[in-house]
């Protein structure tokens, strides 16, 4: 079994564990609601699901967050001992209460609204670096 086929089995397992149908249209819809970059096509989702391709790291990260699995496990089939949680704790520890409230409010929005807010924030950041 090759690398893409093994990735596909882990993707299918994670989807089933969360009650999703094993269909490319499901991956396409759920992924595109969460990813702030260029949307994926139905064909790309089909290739991931059928073991014909492995997504890039940034896309793999989105899949892992959507399915609430460790990205390293999703990609390689191995679990790291707490490294993702440790990074999140460090990141969270530097936040003020107001920043934490903003993040929590943002995360409570539906996925399509989070995507829209993210695009606005990126536009402001790009404008800021140009000036």
UniProtKB/TrEMBL annotation:
The organism's place on the tree of life at top rank: Bacteria
Residue ranges constituting the HTH cro/C1-type domain according to the UniProt record: 40-74
Residue ranges the record marks as coiled coil: none
MF-aspect GO terms: DNA binding
Record-given protein name: HTH cro/C1-type domain-containing protein
